[in-house]
Write a structure and sequence with these properties.
Elements (H helix, E strand, L loop, with lengths): L2 H14 L17 E3 L2 E5 L7 H10 L3 E2 L5 H11 L8 E11 L2 E4 L24 E5 L5 E5 L8 E3 L1 E5 L1 H5 L2
Parallel strand pairs: 4-8
Antiparallel strand pairs: 1-2, 2-9, 3-9, 4-5, 4-6, 6-7
The chain binds calcium ion (2 copies).
Length: 170
C-alpha cells in the first residue's frame, strides 16, 4: 500500500469509530476480555477503585470505562455482570458523568447520553455525585455515585475497547 492509500485507509478506519476515540483498535479480543458487537469488555472484579483509577486501568489495557450506547448493549453487560458473585454492595463504573448538574455525557467522547437505565430511586445525589455505576444489589440498574467512592462499597472497573474485525466486515 502506498503512502496516500495508507492515509486514506487510516482515515476510513478512524471515521468508522466515531463516538469511540479509542487509542487502540484491536484485531481480536485479548485474553480475559469478552467480545460483543464490535467491542471487547473487561470486568475487573477484584480491585476497588475510584472512577479516575478505573479509567486509568482501562486506558492501560487499551480501552475506556464502558460506553453504553443502547439498551441491547446495556442488557448484554448486565447479563455478564450477573455471572460474577458478590457478597458486599458491589458497583461497576460506567463511562458517564454530569459535570453540569443533570446533563449526563459519555466520558469517552463528551456526547450527550440518550439511553438511561436508572434504578427508580436514582439519580438521588445531585451535585454530590457526578459519576454513574451499575448497582449489583438492584439487578445492575444505574445509580449516580461520587466519582471518588465512599462508604463500604466495592466499586470496580468495567472497560470497553473496539474490535477491528466488525468494521472490516462492513
Ligand atoms: Ca459501547
Ligand atoms: Ca445515588
Amino acid at each position: 500500500m502506498d503512502r496516500v492509500n495508507f492515509v486514506v485507509a487510516v482515515a476510513f478506519l478512524a471515521s468508522t469509530v466515531v463516538g469511540h476515540p479509542t487509542p487502540h483498535v484491536l484485531s481480536s479480543c485479548p485474553n480475559g476480555w469478552i467480545a460483543y458487537e464490535g467491542s471487547c469488555y473487561l470486568f475487573n472484579n477484584k480491585d476497588n477503585m475510584s472512577f479516575v483509577a478505573a479509567e486509568e486501568f482501562c486506558t492501560q489495557n487499551g480501552g475506556h470505562v464502558v460506553h453504553i450506547d443502547d439498551e441491547a448493549e446495556n442488557n448484554f453487560i448486565k447479563d455478564q455482570a450477573r455471572q460474577y458473585t458478590h457478597t458486599s454492595t458491589k458497583l461497576l463504573w460506567i463511562g458517564i458523568k454530569d459535570m453540569v448538574e443533570g446533563e449526563w455525557r459519555y466520558t469517552s467522547d463528551d456526547s450527550l447520553v440518550t439511553f438511561f437505565d436508572w434504578d427508580p430511586s436514582q439519580p438521588n445525589d445531585g451535585s454530590y455525585a457526578e459519576c454513574v455505576v451499575l448497582w449489583a444489589d438492584q439487578d445492575y440498574k444505574w445509580g449516580d455515585h461520587p466519582c471518588v467512592h465512599v462508604g463500604s462499597y466495592s466499586v470496580y472497573a468495567l472497560c470497553e475497547a473496539k474490535y477491528m474485525k466488525s468494521y472490516m466486515l462492513q
